[in-house]
Amino acid sequence: MVVEASLILVIVFAILLAVGIPIAISIAIASLATVMLVLPFDIAVFTSAQNMVSSLDSFSLVAVPFFMLSGIIMNHGGIASKLIDFAKLFGGRIHGSLAHTNIIGNGLFGSISSSAIAASTAIGGVMVPSQVNEGYDRKFAAAVNIASAPAGMVIPPSTGFIIFSLISGGTSIAALFMGGLVIGILWILAVMVVAYVIAKKRNYPIAPKAKNENAKKIILDAIPSLLLIVIVIGGILTGIFTAIEASAICVVYSLFLALIYYKTLTIKQLPNVVIHAVELTGVIMLLIAASSLMTFAMAITGMPDALSNLVLNISENPIIILLIINLVLLLVGTVMDVAPAILIFTPIFLPIAEGIGLDPVHFGIFFILNLCIGTITPPVGTGLFVGSSIGKVKIEEVIKPLLPFYAAIFALLMLVTYVPQISLFLPNLLDL
């Protein structure tokens, strides 16, 4: 039964994707076909529909559209230039200062927008040409932008952690946020170290020191945007509001910044922003419903236990098991967006991880870290394609300059995977 169910699920899903059917519909149809192995057609359809609807009946899901709307508002709010100027203050006095500005800017903008593509486009679109104009190698500049673009996706507020919390059965969002904050900062620092070594070797210029009055103005301009992160983290930690309530506060604050403080968004533009958020929310919600049906199909046919036994038959050594999970997730991340990958693979790998004694928070952090790295991994990572386009270089030309960055990022991944204290020490310290 398990073998037949697995084959039907995988083959039907693959065929539907190959002919261009949207991923959510492909998941739902493949899952329904699998359920029909066990239940009669009418009962299978009724049960599947009921399962999909009930999966969306969750208060936690309220956070998803609000955080997405907040990110879109901030993305339309013209904050990229202010964050770039702010980043220059921290990365501007060492070799390769413009590269460091790009890295810090990507981390800040990515966390606020919850999008590596938005960060790569908004920050890299400005910083890559600036680096080239200052004598930086174009391929190096593109590699810096690509390697740092996904870092912000693990820094709160991160919609990926919210979705993981929901699918995993209620893993603490606050703990995931705090662990992700540490990992995101380490990712930024790792890329900066590599960029510094290369920039010093090539003698890339150091930016002139900003005048005190300019520095004050830059900081004052950037602080309101950066306060979004502080408000979310501070409010959750102090218990003023929950992570779900924080999402609504983010929307109100983002509207205040874009409409009133910065005045970069008008009332006339607001309906288009809301429509964009509604469209993205609809896609995510349909994916969640379809993935819930896939989880049900797998459970009713006994697939999770079979997959767990398969992995454990390969090896009972936790080190090998975690390595297998890492390799699969990296491969998945190259071909699939982070949200659907979380929805599909969390029910598969979480029972295995818990079976070898992993903390769900630790697992969630390295799970999403893998998927984020996958977006910039050859041959088909979406972040790799976008970053190459922004840098105006061919993918094959940027792979070699990316190799030292890959080494640093994969080293970080191994540390996070095998040293749980790295991602858990802050949540444990804060008793989350």
TrEMBL record:
**A Pfam family assignment:** DctM
Q: The TRAP C4-dicarboxylate transport system permease DctM subunit domain covers which part of the protein? A: 10-422
Q: Identify the domain of life.
A: Bacteria
| Membrane topology value | Multi-pass membrane protein
User: Under which name does UniProt file this protein?
Assistant: Tripartite ATP-independent transporter DctM subunit
Please indicate if the UniProt record lists Lipid biosynthesis as a keyword: no
Instruction: Please list every transmembrane segment annotated in the UniProt record, as residue ranges.
Output: 6-39, 59-84, 140-167, 173-198, 218-237, 243-262, 274-299, 319-349, 361-385, 405-426
Species source reads Virgibacillus natechei
Give the record's keywords alphabetically: Cell inner membrane, Cell membrane, Membrane, Transmembrane, Transmembrane helix
Q: Which PANTHER family match?
A: SIALIC ACID TRAP TRANSPORTER PERMEASE PROTEIN SIAT-RELATED, TRAP TRANSPORTER LARGE PERMEASE PROTEIN
Q: Where would you say this protein principally sits, based on its record? A: membrane
- Cellular compartments annotated: Cell inner membrane
